[in-house]
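Escalated from tier 1: histidyl-adenosine monophosphate holo job.
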Amino acid sequence: MPEPLKNIKGTQDILFEDNNIWQYLELTIHKFLNKYGFSQIRTPIFENTNLFTRSIGTQTDIVSKEMYSWVDQGNNNLTLKPEATASVARSYIQHKLGKKNPINKLYYIDVLFRRERPQKGRFRQFNQFGVEAIGSKYPEQDAEIIALAYNFYKGLNIKNLTLKINSIGSPEVRIKYKEALKKYLIPYKDKLSKISQKRLETNPLRILDTKIDFELEIIKNIPPIIDFLNQSDKKHFSKVLELLDSLSIKYIVDNKLVRGLDYYCRTVFEIQSINLGSQDALCGGGRYDYLIEELGGKATPAFGFAAGIERLILALNEKELSLSKRPDIYIIITDDTYLSHSFKISESLRSKNLVVINDMLRRSLKSQMKDANRLNACYTIIIGEDEIKNDKIAIKNMDSGNQDYVSLNKIESYF
Ligand code: HAM
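Tier 2 regenerated the structure:
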């Protein structure tokens, strides 16, 4: 016998009732984002590799070591999407969405791929929902989306939320800041981990993301990036904070929050939950005013975020949502002579939006009854020789045990 195959590390099969929460969340996401005027965009699961190298940045973890890339039979360099913002920007430019509308508020529910080390809340194939508002340079756009993200989690009653926010300024500010950071960190170079020593040369901002205790000690007193912001960056950031204050949304200004993708400028944010353990980011995002231009479009400001759905499920208290699904009716037939009766009745009841189950294994009456109990059906309908002959069909309420008898053509109106 050949060895049975297994799924690939970092991917998962979502089976049976585990899908209830996914369906519930997908529906909730669509409804919630429509309330803010966002409309859905679906982009392909793979793109040209250079879309991601140009947008996310070659020195980032994602591009340097986590992408699933290959060369196809036509010699094209392709990559499974590691994130959706670059694809949305590509699509925005390609379809000239900016010409159709000065502001495009788009959202997605998407599957992404990153070859990270799998652990709780971290997968190699994972799902995100996210929004991208393309067109506004104003701080109210930042505040609207940060509040949207925060209220989404609040609405699902997720406790222990921390909103961290920072401004990483305009690109010229960041160039100056990287230099200052380098100057500060060079005396500690030998004490840094190998990876941070490399980052000191390539992308010193990434060192601020460290979770290693001795490095956290080293960066404790780094000069805050806020001190390097120019006047208009500062004004922008304080308006974002003022608007969040007006909604009584609590936040922490974290000057070490820099995010792991290169396209950001000005406001960046993350919402974390301590319920998640070490992979504590529920969502993250920020402003990316230069990405559209860098990808060949007309300079257009934008703001967005994305949220991991697996992490959302980990942080949720599913019990509070009571998502269990019960079939309304289980139709039991005493032998296959009555299949056409059960088929007809099932279809007429389903047309009334009822969930109806038929046995497909030609099981005994006792086994069908057992199956109806296993599925926790609300009602059973029993059809057999006597029932048809006397035109009296038994309908049993499985909770109370009460049984009614109705004629065949009255079943639909009974429910
Ligand atoms: P990101 O921070 O890379 O940002 O990912 C956003 C969220 O996706 C994370 O906060 C986390 O919840 C989830 N996530 C990321 N990687 C994994 C993984 N390996 N397994 C499970 N969940 C994961 C972005 O993707 C940006 N595109 C966000 C954005 C949109 N910025 C502007 N617009």
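The mean pLDDT is 95.
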